[in-house]
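#lab-general

N.A. 3:47 PM
ok so I finally got the sequence cleaned up, no stray characters, all 295 residues accounted for. can someone with queue access submit it? mine expired

B.Y. 3:52 PM
send it over

N.A. 3:53 PM
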Amino acid sequence: MPLDRRVFLGTALAATLATPVRAAANKKLVLLAGSPSHGPGEHEFNAGARLLEKCLKAVPGLDVSFHTGGWPKDESAFDGADGILSYADGGGRHPLVQGNHLETIGKLMDKGVGLICSHYGVEVLKDLGGKQFQQWIGGYYEHMFSCNPMWSPDFTEFPKHAITQGVKPFRIRDEWYFNMRFTTDAKVTPLLIAPPPDAVRDGPYVYPKGPYAHIQEAKGRPETMMWAVERKDGGRGVGFTGGHFHKNWADDNFRKIVLNALVWICKMDVPADGVSSTISDADLTANLDPKPKKK
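B.Y. 4:20 PM
back already:
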């Protein structure tokens, strides 16, 4: 081989070895925080989602995009999204069922984008979002079928799943919904499970106060307050019914299982001990919506 060719090849090889290998693109998570709702310390969607955003900054390879009002002002915010959180009021006011939003989210789901809905955000109307939520996150809160009591379940055991990694038993009072309208077309994995005491089933519920006969008749049955599903389109979905009281985010395990879920829906590896995070009192009170004090 001529000397000049050997020199050329040697120079080219050296340049190649010196060029850093391009890292895989980061995953993108879109956080949708709903508009102000309820009294101080309740349904603090903005502050809660901001807190989760802060905790996720330490996760390598994850970019987080935050939006208030329940929906981004520019839908290009969804470009390249791997996962979406909807933490907002639900029912007929749910941001994902307004205008053509179901269609927009549906197209993202078809691409395998993950979705997690939290607290009131798991409730949609049977004929407006119900079937879609069964497909996208595995189930939904159905008015007069599901119920929403304030109670303190004991979460003592967890299934083996990436979302439960590092989560230890905990007990916390919240408006834990149960008796979801789950899909029958896919395997739904319960993540937070506990049997409500008879007094919880007997009511009162938050609204309507109940009790409902079908809820009372199931006394002794464990109920699911958080679940996960792997969809046929390749995407992942999660429903989390807690999140009424903002102060609950101070609980390490309450917070960890949601952080794990946010990472999981983006198809990232959840650390063996779960997503680690610490928050201060100042973090917890930051970004609270201005609300009139309860009389």
